[in-house]
Amino acid sequence: MLLYILRRVLSAISVVIVTVVASFMLFFVAPTDPAGVICGPRCTPERLADITRSLDLDQPALEQIGLYFKGIVAGRTYTAGGVERHCDAPCLGYSYVLGVPVTDLLARAVPVTLSIVIGGATIYLLVGVLVGTTAARLRGTSLDRAAVGSSLVIGSVPYFVVALIIALYATFLPKSQYTSFFQNPGAWASGLLAAWLCLGLTNSASYTRYSRASMIEAMGQDFTRTARSKGISERRVVYRHGLRAAMTPVVTIFGIDVAYQLVNTIFTERIFQLPGLGLRLLNAFNQYDLPVLMGGVIVGAVVLVTMNLVVDILYTVLDPRVRLG
Amino acid sequence: MSDQTLRAPQTVTRAPRARHGDEEAYLEVTDLHVQFPTADGRVHAVQGLSYSLPLRRTLAIVGESGSGKSVSSMAILGLHDPKSTWISGSIKVGGKEIVGMSQKDLMHYRGVDAAMIFQDPQSSLHPYFTVGDQIMESYRTHNNVSKRAAKARAIDMLGRVGIPNPGRRVSQYPHEFSGGMRQRAMIAMALVNDPKLLIADEPTTALDVTVQAQILDLIADLQRDFGSAVVFITHDLGVVAEISDDILVMYAGSAIEHGPVDKILGQPLHPYSWGLLESIPAVSGTPGPLHPIPGTPPSLLAVPSGCPFHPRCEYRDRVPDDLCRTLKPELIPRTADTGRTSRCHLKEPDRIFETEVLPRLP
C-alpha cells in the first residue's frame, strides 16, 4: 500500500514537471518577443531591456527553464527598474504589470477559490446524494419524477444564468465579499453564502442523477437481496449495504469534479466579485501578464494531479477489491 | 490452499429419515399465486402452487428458467416488493403465515426461521464487507450479543462449513475466497441463526463439478446436524437424485408432478418429465443426437389455455375431445400410488412410460 502511494506520488510529480516545462516553452521560449508582450504597447526600450534581462530571455532556453525551477525550489532575486526584489521559494516568477512576485498574488487568490469550492462542493454533494438516493428509494413515484424533472431543468440552465439570477434577485442574502476564515469564520461564511448556493444548486442536479442511477443499480444487486434475506431492517439494507456500494462511483466523479471546479470558478468569482484564482488569471490574460498565467497553470496542474491522486488512494480505501501491494 | 480443501468428496451418509407424510409439515404452501404487473400485462409467475415439507426432509424443485421455482421460493422469505407484486394463497412456516406479513414481522422471521442460499456467491456477498462482518451482521441482528461473541460464532460457523483456518479467513473479503469457499461462507451466513428451513436457490450452478459435489455433501451433512427442512431449487436432475427426498416439477408457474424422488425419477407420469429425462445426454455408449423438448417454455404473460404444456406435448392427440387445449388438469394421484401426484389428462401414463418412453431412454 505504501509502495503504491509512493509510486503514484512520484508519477504525479513527474506529470507536474512535464506540464511546467511544456507551458514554460509555450509562454517564454516559443513566442518571438515575449518581453515585448509583457512590456505592453507603451513600452520604453529601457523597460524592454530590463524585462528581457530579468526574465533571462537573453539566455538559452534550457538555462531559462533551469533558472525557473531553481526559483521554485530555492527562490531568486529579480531586478525590476534597477531595484532588486527578492522572491522567496517557491518563486513562480515576477509580475511586471503589478510589481509583485507571482507567488504572493496566487497565495492571496487560492484561499478565496478554495473557500468557494469547498462550500459549494459540500452543498452539491450533500443535496445531490440525499435527493438522488431518496428518489431511487421512491423510484417511479411522483416524488421521484419531480426530483428527476427538476434536476434536468436545473442542469439544463447555463451556470452563469443561475449565478446572475441569484446575484440579481437573492438580495436578501448577505453581501458577497471575501473575509479570511482565520480572521472571522462568521463573516467568511456569510460573505460566501451566495456563491456557495449558486455553485451548490447548479451542480447538485448532476449529483442527483449520478446518485439516483448508482443507487438504483446497487439496490438491484444480488448482495442487496442477500442483505434483505438476513432479516436486517430496510433502513440498514439501504444505507449500509446499498449506499456503501452506490457511493464509490459518485466519490470518484466528485474528486475529479472538485479539481475542475478549483480551476473553473471564474464565473462565480466574476459575478460575486470574489478575488479568487479565476479572476486573477482573467486579469492577467487581459494585461498579458505572462508570469502570472504561468503560475496559474502550475497551480492548476498541481490541483488536478493531487485530486487524481487523492481519488485513487480513496478508491483503495472504499473498495477492498482494488487494494494493491 | 490446505490439504483439507483438496480431499476427495465424501459420500453422503445420511441418518434414516422420516417417511413422506409421517411428520407434521414445517413448510406448507397452499394455492400460492404470484403475479407481477408490468407494462405488457400481468406476469402470472406462480399459479396455484401447493406443497408441504416436514423437518429433516429435502424437497427439490425442478423446472426450466421462468417456471416459477425461484419466484415461489423468494415468496417464502417474503422477498418480493409488496408494491410491485401481487401475492395470494398461503405460506406457513412453523405455523407463521408469511403471505401478508408486515415488514416488521418479516424482519424477525427472515434469517431466523428460514434462510436462503443464493446461486452466485460472487455477487450475493457484499464486496465491500469482510465475510466475518457479513456473518456477524446476520447473527447480531437476531441475537443481543457483543461483537466479540458474534465474531467467535462467525469463526465457529466458518469452521463448521469446512473452511480451513477460519480465524484468519473471518477477516477476509469475499474476493479473497475461491468460488467453493465463498459458497461455504454463504452457507455459514445462512445457518448462523439455526433456521429450521433452508432454501437453496441453485447453490451449485456457478461452481465446477468437484466443488459442486462437496457443497452438496456439506448441505446434506448440515441438514442432518441442524435437523432442518431444505428446499433445493435446481435444474440439474443429477443433483436432484443425489440430494433430495421429494421432487416437485414445475412448468409455467404450476406444479406438474410431485412425489418421492425415486418414484418420480424412476417412473415419471407426465410427458414434460419424460422430456426432461430424454433430454439428458448419454455419457456412456455410442454418442447419439440430443433429444431436447421441442418448442420453448411459454411466456408467463400469456400462458397457453388448458394444460400449459399442450403446445409442446407429443401425446396430446391421445386425449379425446381436445381436452388438453381446453381444460387444465388437476394435480392428483394418477395411479394406485397415492403418495405422488401428476397434472395430466393421459390415461394410463404408467403404461405409456414403461412401453414407449423407457426403451428410448439412454
Topology:
The complex is a heterodimer of chains A (325) and B (362).
Chain A: H1 2-29, H2 34-39, H3 45-54, H4 61-74, E1 76-80, E2 83-87, E3 94-95, E4 100-101, H5 102-137, H6 142-156, H7 159-169, H8 185-219, H9 222-229, H10 234-263, H11 266-271, H12 277-286, H13 290-318
Antiparallel strand pairs in A: 1-2, 3-4
Chain B: H1 3-6, E1 25-38, E2 41-54, E3 58-62, H2 69-76, E4 86-93, E5 96-97, H3 103-109, E6 114-117, H4 121-124, H5 131-142, H6 147-160, H7 166-169, H8 179-191, E7 197-201, H9 209-226, E8 229-234, H10 237-243, E9 246-251, E10 254-260, H11 261-266, H12 271-278, H13 323-326, E11 341-342, H14 349-357
Parallel strand pairs in B: 3-8, 3-9, 6-7, 7-8
Antiparallel strand pairs in B: 1-2, 1-4, 4-5, 9-10, 10-11
Task: Characterize the structure shown.
The complex is a heterodimer of chains A (325) and B (362). Helices cover 73% and strands 4% of the residues of chain A. Chain A has 325 residues and is mainly alpha-helical. In chain A, strand 1 and strand 2 form a beta hairpin. The longest helix of chain A has 36 residues. Chain B is of the alpha/beta class. Helix content of chain B is 33%, strand content 20%. Chain B is built from 14 helices and eleven strands. In chain B, strands 6-7-8-3-9-10-11 form a seven-stranded mixed sheet, sandwiched between helices. In chain B, helix 6 crosses helix 8. The longest helix of chain B has 18 residues. The N terminus of chain B is likely disordered. The chains are: A mainly alpha (325), B alpha/beta (362). The interface between A and B is medium-sized, with 20 and 30 residues.
